[in-house]
Amino acid sequence: MRNMMAIAALLAGAAPVAAQTAQPAQGEPTASFISGPEVGEAAPEFTLPWATRDSVGPANAPFRLAHLRGKVVVLAFYPRDFTSGCTAEMRTFTEQYDLLFGEGVEVVGISVDSLATHVNFAASLKAPFKLLSDPAQVVAKRYGSNGSQGSMRRTVYVIDGEGRITYRNLRFGALDRGSYDELKAAVREARGS
Description:
The chain folds into two domains: 1-33, no CATH class; 37-191, 3-Layer(aba) Sandwich (Glutaredoxin). Helices cover 30% and strands 20% of the residues. It contains six helices and ten strands; from the N terminus they run αββββββααβαβαββα. The strands form three sheets. Strands 4-8-7-6-9-10 form a six-stranded mixed beta sheet. Strands 1-2 form a two-stranded antiparallel sheet. The radius of gyration is 17 Å and the shape is globular.
């Protein structure tokens, strides 16, 4: 029955990503289907609290994706602050900010961590971008970036000035140079340069 459901989902165009469950029923592996907005679709709007390396953003002025219309936006969902892969990814974004993104691009990191942890993490890296807190993974679910065991999956989206997804990587490699090269090209394309 499960195999039939998986085949039906594939035929319907769902993007499959296989994942083993902790206790598969009767020894059968299960697959979970990760979805999220496709390239060309409108980016789901959202509002979340934010922090920078200097402070927590004001409660009455949360981050709103809609406020960045007209700019290219990079959304980087990542598992947790201060973990090795996440530190490598956010450090690369920080150290190569101008090379990867350039002027007029807004980069936003999103994880389940608290705002206080985000301030410490951003300060340790001297990150020039905001980190958003999504502890219940509400936004992550809308972007197919929610994970298990309390942390998100590492995914990256590029959104153009009109609010459309122009690039998505549902398996961004924090230690893979090719992932950064691909992201850099996607940002350039979204910027029209």
